[in-house]
């Protein structure tokens, strides 16, 4: 490796943006470095080396040095070796079992190092992806499964088992089947667990309930309480955390539901009240209806959701309403009064 590439390697290893790209932690950093690499193909070898080194680091903190361990051990030995003034029953018990000060000190030191390193390993074994309000990211999990994560949502999984995912919020999954082992894929929320082999489905775990809509294949839902439910393509199910039961089930192609794809809300015969709940989940802005009858206005069609201003404008035109942002809240005013 020449001096120029060596310097680039050293810079990359200290670049937070590059580290985010390597670990797939930030959509903007991923986009930037993908473009940079496409325009600097001669540096791919250095990039791959830097990526390998970055992903090969297992601990956030440096391991304990030998001098640090020796120092801690000496401190423990000095405490244990000091002769007590009073000869107590505890001393007799210790003498009876012949506890060596060195053995005790060594045990304490080993436990100290074990707890230190074990907690670090556990912390680094969990992978998390989280979106802010209004942000949508596309992810590819280690097994090849693709995930679209909606705003104000989070998924997490262990590096050792990326096919067992926990979801808080909303996501769309396209699970890659593993035919050689027929391995299952799980998505867990606070209400239920989705079990699949390879399929496409949507999960929304907001508002103390979990909605599941199945596009392709079949899935099994393991509901809280031990009950199981098999879903077929086109079905929609809503499980209430409060009622601890399925509160809605239907053919999603005919009934009311909302799904989002590539930055667009797709509403099918859904009330304005439910639409505004989607806005609150994605952007963190609660809504207030000046006229309660406005809640029942029905919306169908696609509305852009990557830009809040454009999204609200589309809703206004579709429902003859005016939406005003005031005190971090959305006020919905009905412009067309009923006779």
Q: Give me the Rg, rounded.
A: 28 Å
Number of domains as seen in the coordinates:
4
> Whole-number average pLDDT?
79
Quaternary state, please?
Answer: single chain
What is the H/E string? HHHHHHHEEEEEEEEEEEEEEEEHEEHEE
Strand content: 25-35%
Q: Distance between termini? A: 80 Å
Q: How many strands, what sense, and barrel or not for the largest sheet?
A: 7 strands, mixed
Tally of helical segments: 9
Query: How many β-strand runs?
Result: 20
Strand order of the largest sheet: 1-4-5-7-8-11-12
| CATH class (first level) name of the largest domain | Mainly Beta
Could you tell me the CATH topology label of the largest domain.
Jelly Rolls
Keywords:
339 residues, 4 domains, seven-stranded antiparallel β-sheet
Your description of this structure?
With 339 residues, the protein is α+β, with helices and mostly antiparallel strands. The radius of gyration is 28 Å and the shape is globular. It has 4 domains: 3-56, no CATH class; 66-124, no CATH class; 138-251, Jelly Rolls (Sandwich); 257-334, Phage tail protein beta-alpha-beta fold (3-Layer(bab) Sandwich). Residues 57-62, 87-97 and 116-122 have low confidence and may be disordered. The protein is built from 9 helices and 20 strands. A 7-stranded mixed beta sheet has the order 1-4-5-7-8-11-12. Strands 2-3-6-9-10-13-14 form a 7-stranded antiparallel beta sheet, with no helix packed on it. Strands 15-16-18 form a 3-stranded antiparallel beta sheet.
């Amino acid at each position: 490796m020449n001096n120029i590439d060596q310097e680039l390697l050293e810079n990359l290893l200290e670049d937070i943006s590059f580290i985010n790209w390597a670990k797939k932690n930030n959509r903007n950093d991923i986009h930037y470095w993908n473009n940079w690499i496409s325009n600097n193909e001669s540096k791919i070898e250095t990039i791959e080396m830097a990526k390998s080194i970055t992903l090969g680091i297992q601990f956030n903190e440096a391991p304990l040095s030998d001098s640090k361990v020796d120092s801690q051990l000496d401190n423990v030995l000095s405490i244990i070796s000091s002769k007590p003034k009073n000869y107590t029953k505890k001393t007799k018990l210790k003498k009876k079992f012949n506890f060596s000060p060195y053995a005790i000190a060594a045990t304490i030191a080993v436990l100290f190092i074990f707890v230190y390193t074990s907690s670090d390993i556990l912390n680094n074994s969990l992978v998390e992806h989280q979106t802010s309000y209004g942000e949508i990211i596309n992810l590819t999990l280690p097994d090849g499964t693709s995930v679209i994560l909606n705003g104000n949502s989070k998924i997490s999984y262990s590096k050792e088992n990326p096919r067992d995912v926990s979801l808080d919020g909303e996501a769309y999954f396209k699970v890659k089947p593993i035919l050689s082992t027929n391995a299952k894929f799980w998505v867990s929320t606070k209400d239920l667990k989705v079990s699949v082999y390879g399929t496409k489905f949507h999960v929304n775990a907001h508002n103390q309930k979990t909605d599941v809509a199945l596009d392709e294949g079949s899935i099994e839902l393991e509901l809280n309480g031990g009950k199981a439910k098999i879903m077929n393509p086109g079905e929609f199910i809503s499980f209430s955390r409060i009622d601890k039961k399925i509160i809605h089930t239907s053919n999603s192609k005919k009934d009311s539901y909302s799904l989002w794809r590539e930055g667009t809300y797709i509403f099918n015969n859904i009330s304005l009240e439910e639409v505004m709940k989607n806005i609150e989940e994605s952007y963190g802005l609660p809504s207030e209806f000046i006229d309660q009858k406005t809640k029942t206005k029905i919306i169908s069609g696609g509305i852009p959701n990557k830009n809040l201003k454009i999204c609200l404008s589309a809703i206004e035109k579709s429902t003859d309403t005016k939406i005003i942002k005031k005190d971090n809240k959305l006020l919905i005013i009905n412009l067309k009064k009923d006779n």
